Amino acid sequence: MTKEEIKQSISMTELVERYGLRPNRAGFIRCPFHQGDHTASLKIYRDSFYCFGCGEGGDIFKFVMLMDGCSFKDAFISLGGEYQKPETKADSRHALRDRLNSDWKRERAEQKKRNKRIRLLQVSRDMDLYRSVMRAYKPFSDEWCTCMCEYSSALEEYECLWEEVSADL
């Protein structure tokens, strides 16, 4: 819970009663923060308190801090809060570095995908060229066989690239 959620969920009267203190009908108790209080001098309001004897006052967190002799963090946690360490400059630099690094990696991956698509088009054009050259030569001639070998290599590359590009979509 956040600080404001805690303040709205726990009234000052409720908190005081958790410590075994009972306000009178006017909302006063004997102040536990100073000695010699013979009459009730600490006024309990809905979301705060104030002692007319010693001048101590505050909200529910301040009351817990004074009663338990603890820090705000400890009071916050004891009232049900969830404390998260604030981000330091080093943390924010690391976060920025990580974000830039992930942006760079994402851009690099996109560039690789684009390069695969471009290469796929180039290989497709090469295959068209080999087919047209093969038509110009007699089947099984030296030139035809050379083109057929090149065409087969291009076809293998085309099939591998096609699988990779299809997987990226």
Describe the structure.
By secondary structure, the chain is mainly alpha-helical. It folds into 2 domains: 3-78, Zinc finger, CHC2-typedomain (DNA Primase, Chain A); 89-168. It has 6 helices and 4 strands; from the N terminus they run H-H-E-E-E-E-H-H-H-H. Strand 2 and strand 3 form a beta hairpin. Helix 3 packs across helix 4 and helix 5 packs antiparallel against helix 6. The longest helix is centred in the middle third of the chain and has 48 residues, at 89-136. The model has no long low-confidence stretch (mean pLDDT 90).
Write a brief structural summary.
The protein is mostly helical and 169 residues long. Helix content is 62%, strand content 6%.
Keywords:
mainly alpha; DNA Primase, Chain A; 2 domains
| Mean of residue pLDDT values | 90
Count up the domains: 2
Largest sheet: 4 strands, antiparallel
The number of E-state strands comes to 4
**What is the approximate shape?**
rod-shaped
Order of helical and strand elements: HHEEEEHHHH
Low-confidence stretches: none
End-to-end CA span: 42 Å
Q: Numbering strands along the chain, what is their spatial order in the largest sheet?
A: 1-2-3-4
Topology diagram in text:
Elements: H1 3-9, H2 12-18, E1 28-29, E2 42-44, E3 49-51, E4 57-58, H3 60-68, H4 72-78, H5 89-136, H6 142-168
Antiparallel strand pairs: 1-2, 2-3, 3-4
Helix pairs in contact: 3-4, 5-6
